[in-house]
Design a protein that fits this description.
alpha+beta, three-stranded antiparallel sheet, 15% strand
Amino acid sequence: MFSRGGFGMVRFVFSDRLKGTMAKKKYSSDLCRQLELAANDPSLEIRHRPTRYENGTVLPIEITGVFPAIEGKAELTVDKFLGGGFAGQVYRCKLTGLELPEPIPGLEEGKLYAVKIVIPPSAFSRWFRNTTYWLAFQGPFSSQVNHGACRAGLLWQKLVRRASLVKFGRETAVKDAYASFWDANLNAYGEITEWIEGRMWHLEADDNITKRFDWKNINLADTGSPEFVDKRRFMRGMVELMHEMGAPEFARQYEWSTMKSQPNCMKRTDTEDGGLCAIDFRAGLALLPWLPMSPGDFKLILNGLKRGALVQFDRCDLSKMEAYVASHPEVFEDVQPMIDELKIQDRAYRRSLLDIYPPWPAPDLRPWVAEGCNCRTGGRLSGRRLDRRSLCRKTAQGWLALRTLPPAGRGSRTWKNDPPTMGQQGLPQACLRHPDQASLFQARTQGPCRT
């Protein structure tokens, strides 16, 4: 209701009832579950696919340990949805069930864990992330759908955690990683990592802010911003460590100048020393030279060009990593199986992408293509033709050129009277780490896996 007051002003008079109807509604997980049940009516031809999980959701999953790589079954109960960004959505979950032939150190039933599923809950975030990644590497976002990418990222996190003994004198400087899994509901890989109790730095009143400009050398007791300075030093140490290990693109997660990396470090409150801890090793966006998104990106782009990397995401130098490991044998002596798996998974991951930007191809890539291994991965040639060992380089190049012709592109995937041998559906088993992925790729591509 409203009435006209003096001086021609309109005065609104809201009743209590009107205020009640305009009040902000509280988010209800129970209501979301009721709507989900209605949307998943068995009589519907197209079922509702969730974009994220509500509190209390139970997730039965098959897991593979990071180190050791033991396979088993687990049950996670979502305790709280923590939010999501370009890299994925994060939950605090309770491990309510665990079946393993051997124990995985750190995984215990009844404890809380951080769970990240590598798909954003927002449709726009998914589109923007996938578009920038496709422009960089001409493929789908690998950490979401590629087993090698998922495993390689976790193995790197585990290695950096071990290397933090050398750099910081403690493993608690890096969050631990326990297992990976495939989520068939969201169609994405996920990871189970250590739950860190901690906080960001305190908001500190600094009467002499210019002192902290010399953050590399100033004594923490002489500045009004001790936590600010300490965090900047720690993040710089993380960047130096990953560059020493041959992972400069992983170091992008801890570059201070990007102005968005600070939340990737927390001050622990669950340990006696209360030190800082690096908690995020999954980049969300590829770095394109024509699309810098922060002041620090300009420097990163120039440094990447010096290395011969036009685009950046998570590429690494395994030879440099091996040299670092060899220089500290006492620290890495018991993790050699993990290093061996990293080499295998990283190679499989890199070979699954077209990646047209490197200035020169890998020296062993050309014979690998000429032998038809790329055709075998795509399931486009039968074993009988490959066994003839007669696929010369020109033949392979001509066959690949056929795919650029719309009428012949799909037909060239199988040759006359020679169906693929990668399963009756033409699905390449090399592309599919988890059996649930077969139905996903078959539904989306109706043909060979498009990695």
